[in-house]
Amino acid sequence: MPPFRAQMLRQYELVERVLAYDPDADEAMLNRAYVYTVQKHGTQKRASGDPYFSHPVEVAGLMTELKLDQDTIITALLHDTVEDTLATVDEIERLFGPDVARLVDGVTKLSKIETMSESERAAENLRKFLLAMSEDLRVLLVKLADRMHNMRTLHYIKSEEKRRRIARETMDIYAPLAERVGMYEYMREMQLLAFEQLEPEAYATITGRLAAIRSEEGAQVDAIALEIKQALAEAGLRVEVSGREKHPYSIWRKMAERHVSFEQITDIMAFRVLTDNEDDCYKALGILHREWQMIPGRFKDYISTPKMNGYRSLHTALIYSNAMRVEVQIKTHEMHERNEFGLAAHWAYKQGGTPDGQVGWLRDLIEILESSHDAEELLENTKMAIYQDRIFAFTPKGALFQLPKGATPIDFAFAVHTKLGAQAVGAKINGRHVPLRTPLGNGDVVEIIKSRTSEPQLSWLGFVVTGKARAAIRRFVRQKERAEVAAIGRKLYEEIVERLPTKIGKKALNDALKRLKLAGEEDFMFAIGSAKLDDRQVMEALVPGSAANIPEENWPSQKRAIAVRGLTPGMAFKLADCCHPVPGDRIVGLRRPGKGVEVHAIDCMKLADGVDADWIDLSWDARTDGAIGRLRAELYNRPGTLAEMAGIFAKNHANVVNLEMTQRENPFHTYEVDLEVRDLAHLTRIISALRASEAVAQAERI
């Protein structure tokens, strides 16, 4: 970790740093920005007691270490002025230009809104930040430096709860973002500082053990590094070799994931080999694998297949003397420089150059941003998108996609294109048909089978792992559910209108929307369908006074049944699990505020539990085809009876969704079976066939 400075970076020192790598920088504007932030922050103090302006100055200093352009340095100096002082974006644009104003606005957090929860404030800040970052990656670089300096001074904050909250946000959002843009130095330091706050006992124990190893075995690290260098030098390679203990946070994660103690972690030491060119990397790898035994499964070639953030290196693990395990990273000097500072190094200052933030994973984040429904969902999906180990999978044409471990063909389809994910109906992995929930492996070739009539399924949320897929599926489910609820509401509205004493026109409907303060007709129908408005409220909104004189006991009942079709579990209509109604049953709907309509058979015993809900008389639409029926079958306990029952299902073209043995009592076995059937007649024929079978003692619908 870099040592903390004893004093703040002075004005002339900051300007000299910028001029050292950018002689054409506007010295006067840099000086003006420094003075502006000092004046605006005035007498404000930080928790450490230092003047507040020391923070933006230090952030600007971090930007100079990355050799970033003049606008980024000025943005760093001004990044807190709009949030914490009387400065405005318009004033900054007038004094420092539109680019700086845009960058400052991107970094600036939204003003705290007292009515928002902590997660909502965090989500809104993240939402604005990601949008700005998608336009210009320099917003992210300033934000990461801002968070880095805040973490370095976190110990000055007296409130333990606040320290832990900031540390958790850093661990969940900012360290992963640093990793995703390849800024590993920032990522490691943020993780270490956050780890110290979140797990103080584990931090103290592990750093203490590492210090002991350093004092006892420090010479051993140097000796191993020298031996590696000598082995490579004898083969004619000119390399630099350095060794260190593993990062304390990565050791703790490994201990937690493997459920082992510190003593059981065998690969505490890691070594870095820097070569002159790419060919020497592979030569060095071959020499090390000949000299020492490699550990199978631990070799990774990130040179031929770089990580999404541009990271390139060869990773391997070796068994050294006395069964000691060591990790070795092999890369060129140029790769090392880019790896440590990632996209910041790639987009560091260059004459006439401008950072370009449109990288693939960032576009995915923006899509998640647009799909997420609320604060918790945004934070959840964003964490999923930016903080997971990766695998590599290919399209049949050879296009490469990086995905989290555990990703499925559905995740892959959404990674290729949202439309492909929405239309997916099947998949092949390496030419073989597989279920859509099958986890992908490294190097798999994935072919997605699609249908234009297909739609994302609610059940996919049970196995997808990428934030992009989850956000897209949830968005579709919400849109479909809203449309179905509004359709219910429209039918109820038409039925309610018939009870009114006068004919209703467009004017009455528009007046009702104004009285109810609803934006449009669709919102009105949704409110009726979701039971946010009852019949009385609808009538009064349309014709004031029309429901006032109707006693509750004489309230008119629904005149006709509402036809339903295309029932979608989890959407507006939900077929009740207690009675499993199928087309042909007489049905009734229970409507509760904020929930979809629950459809029951009219003789369902559970209907008594729905007296607190609105009842809707329903009927099956003529085009409705198919539902899941449940039956109980008592089979004789002898070989072949289960197969005979399955044969009856197959002969009657009924698909078994679920089969469970519920009782085993000689000479009978009792099963409960869920079947996909067309209608009540179809289910009745199957039960009749079962009862006629010599294998079945008894069969009934439940």
UniProtKB/TrEMBL annotation:
Its EC number is 2.7.6.5. It comes from the Bacteria. Residues 52-151 form the HD domain. PROSITE patterns: ACT, HD, TGS. The keyword Transferase applies. One of its GO terms (cellular component) is plasma membrane. One of its GO terms (molecular function) is guanosine-3',5'-bis(diphosphate) 3'-diphosphatase activity. Residues 630-702 form the ACT domain. Residues 389-450 form the TGS domain. It is an enzyme of class 2 (transferase). It catalyses: GTP + ATP = guanosine 3'-diphosphate 5'-triphosphate + AMP. Transmembrane segments: none annotated. Keywords: Transferase. InterPro entries: ACT-like_dom_sf (IPR045865), ACT_dom (IPR002912), Beta-grasp_dom_sf (IPR012675), HD/PDEase_dom (IPR003607), HD_domain (IPR006674), NT_sf (IPR043519), RelA/Spo_fam (IPR004811), RelA/SpoT_AH_RIS (IPR045600). CDD domains: ACT_RelA-SpoT, HDc, NT_Rel-Spo_like, TGS_RSH. One of its GO terms (biological process) is guanosine tetraphosphate metabolic process. It holds the Pfam family RelA_AH_RIS. In eubacteria ppGpp (guanosine 3'-diphosphate 5'-diphosphate) is a mediator of the stringent response that coordinates a variety of cellular activities in response to changes in nutritional abundance. NCBIfam families: spoT_relA. Belongs to the relA/spoT family. This is GTP pyrophosphokinase rsh.
